[in-house]
What does this fold into?
Amino acid sequence: MAKLELRKVGKFYGGFEAVKSVDLTVEDREFVVFVGPSGCGKTTLLRMIAGLEDISSGELFIDGARANAVPPDKRGLAMVFQSYALYPHMTVAGNMGFALKMAGAPKAEIAEKVQEAARVLQLEPLLNRRPRMLSGGQRQRVAIGRAIVRSPKGFLFDEPLSNLDAALRVQMRTELVKLHQALAATMIYVTHDQVEAMTMADRIVVLEGGRVAQVGTPLELYHRPANLFVAGFIGSPKMNFLSARAVAIGPRETTLELAPDRVLAFPSPAPALAIAPGAAVTLGVRPEHLRFVESGPLRGVVDVVEHLGVETLVYVKESSGGTVIVRTDDLSRVRQGETVSLALHPDRGSLFDTAGDALFHLSPT
Amino acid sequence: MNEQRASLPGTIAAWVVAFLMVFPILWMAITAFKTESEAIAIPPLLLFRPVLSSFAAALAQSGYLHFALNSIIVSLGSTVLAILIAFPAAYAMAFQPGRHTQDLLVWMLSTKMLPPVGVLVPIYLIFRDTGLLDTVEGLVIVDTLMNLPIVVWMLFSFFRDIPRDILEAAHMDGVGPRKQMMHLLLPLASPGIASAALLAIILSWNEAFWSINLTAAHAGTLAAYIARYSAPEGLFWAKLSAASVLAVAPILLFGCLAQRRLVRGLTVGAVK
It folds into this structure.
């Protein structure tokens, strides 16, 4: 199968650097998701791997062989496009068998491979239809089928679910994960949706401004974000960021001051934090790691209450000015306008320095 | 509320203008069915017994069929040639544009702004020296060159409407440019190709300047055929009209049949 290695891969458009020196190894049979806001370079990076864009600097290795100059069809990778890019004048079977037909494969072999892919994707009854007669989800399946038929070493997905409605997206997400297990192929998947990334990936690559912000498993990224960008991007609702000052950094205990009379103490990490006492820091706390208490280090007035059924999101206007989101249970009785006090989960949270890089995480994982 | 409905004076004015514009053609068609003496009668006759003698004379005297055949060969030949050249050119411009593609397109169109008479002498001399004067081949070449910019532009516009992803998907599938053109662009852009071809046929059929100047009895088209009627021995209005009707009728009929496709082709990309 396929192992991909990117060494200092970069992309320039004129003077603009869209992808900046990306180092990454995608292991064989791994499901890797590139995620990031629009314009972060994730699609460009994918297209460079596909061979649809030239690599401006750095090297790409596929199974150990340098692939910078290898044409797209010789890389053994298949791509599924955001727009599906089906051939509108061909039937589903025609679409799926087109690559093999052009390569001069015997008709019987084409028919067999198309049948097999159609079976896997439950497209058998649709084989003689044209793309315009299919629903969005079916078209998406045909696009995937077209990739499968070529028996590629790896699959590249460019935001394949973004044109589908929410319910179908969830369903296709599961189907893609199952497909990955069934095919045991390397997959690289680009999305701007962090939920897709979290639910599908073996490993997630978070990109920001053409640079890799962090690479890790979904839970690593969630509990141990390397910087404020990843912390804010992964997770919904967003992680709360609280400005604080490190007042005491002892061997046993570290104390943060959130506001003049409100301090927060937690066991010091080892090795001790590399910051001077009095330094400004940012404390990152997930909404579910805050709870309502009689008297806690955070205080504020409830601004908005969102009952989502399974849980309740409470937006608290904190006394220092910022808004803190609290995720609480479905039976929460908190009302808008109420004055509340909040406590932090004793062993969850992350601390970031002024540059936005993580200093340490309280997470057990 | 009534904005959609035209006012009565407006409607009348529109009909008057339309009538004035179509009158010469209408008068030509009427004259074609008169005798020569009726044709020059003053005041002009509106009521007369229609006869076909002028058509018979025009057909018998001047080898209409020969000229008509030349018109068909030249318009079809130049159109096929223009499409064959324009197709890969438009493909390259639409899907692999370089830094100067836009300039090139504008330059190609700008050649259409040059009056043909400006290049008459050089082209005439080239044709004389290469033995292309009064040959069907020569006229095919000139008409091809004349229509090429328009055909390239039309195909380019049609190709631009084809999602790039489709060709990239084909590229990933190992389908090279030639096969992409054959198996994807040709079927996908067939309405556009048909529109471009129809326009090229009409333009080429109606082309008179080069036909009159570069051909004589052998390779003349219907345009040259009509021009021959203004001969030194005088004007025969009825016969000239009949000949003109014979020259215009085929392409008029063709245009009517192709009208819907043509309008669609010419307005492509205008509205999304």
